[in-house]
Every structure is written in C-alpha cells, then in structure tokens.
Write a structure and sequence with these properties.
With 134 residues, the protein is an alpha/beta fold. Helix content is 17%, strand content 32%.
C-alpha cells in the first residue's frame, strides 16, 4: 500500500503523465531539460569515444546519459537513475558534458547516427532518483 501511495504522489507531482516502474530506495524529482543525443564516435566526443568522463565504458544498446555539470549539483551524479519522457526504461548517468552546457542531458545512442539525428533536440521532462540515505 505504501508503494501505491508513493507512485501516486510521483505521478501527481511529475511533469509527465506516465510513471515507469521505479526502483525502491529513491526520492524522485522532476525537471524539464533540453535533451540531445550523442554517439560513441571520435568526432562527437574525443580520441577515446567509448570512455566517459567518469571512466565508464560505453557499449551500444545500454541506456546511458550525459548531464550538464549544473545538474550534477542537483543530484544527477554518477549512476543516478533517470526516466526520460518519450523513451522507455531507466537510464543511468554515466557521463558529464562540457561546462558550457546548462540544464541539458545527452542521450547515448551507441553508433546509430540516424537515430540520434531523428531524436534531435527537444525539451523533455525527466524524473531522477536520489538515494534516500543521502
């Protein structure tokens, strides 16, 4: 019953109208951000496109995002779970963007350039989980 109330509260205060199955142990927050997409290609990242700024290895097919550095201060730190409006599943923060970007996420789309271009740039709502013990 407690989980039901938690999901109802999340749904009411979320900036989106659907609720994914969310893991327990998190306080969930919503924020509207600009979302773009990126690929693990040297011309989009650096000489080693499969290693993130946190040192993780990227693998096509996994649900990862990069966040602008101002979002790090809001709790979107390494491995934070994120639900993105318009995409299925839960994404993890695995990379951080250049300091020039603000209020922005970059969705990892492997090596699928067409999919990344189709996504483009859009304003979306994200829900992100901060561990309850923090």
């Amino acid at each position: 019953m407690k989980r039901f109330y938690f999901l109802m509260i999340l749904w009411i205060f979320s900036c989106k109208n659907t609720v994914e199955t969310v893991p327990d142990g998190y306080n969930w927050h919503s924020r509207t951000v600009t979302a773009t997409a990126y690929n693990s290609l040297a011309n989009q990242t650096d000489a080693n496109p499969n290693i993130t700024a946190f040192g993780d290895s990227l693998q096509p097919g996994l649900k990862y995002i990069a966040v602008s550095r101002d979002l790090l201060a809001l709790g979107l730190k390494h491995n934070t779970p994120v639900i993105i409006e318009g995409l299925e599943g839960i994404y993890l923060v695995k990379d951080k963007m250049h300091s020039r970007w603000r209020n922005r996420i970059d969705v990892y789309m492997g090596e699928d350039i067409k999919r990344a271009k189709k996504w483009g740039r859009k304003r979306v709502c994200i829900d992100y989980g901060i561990p309850i013990d923090e």
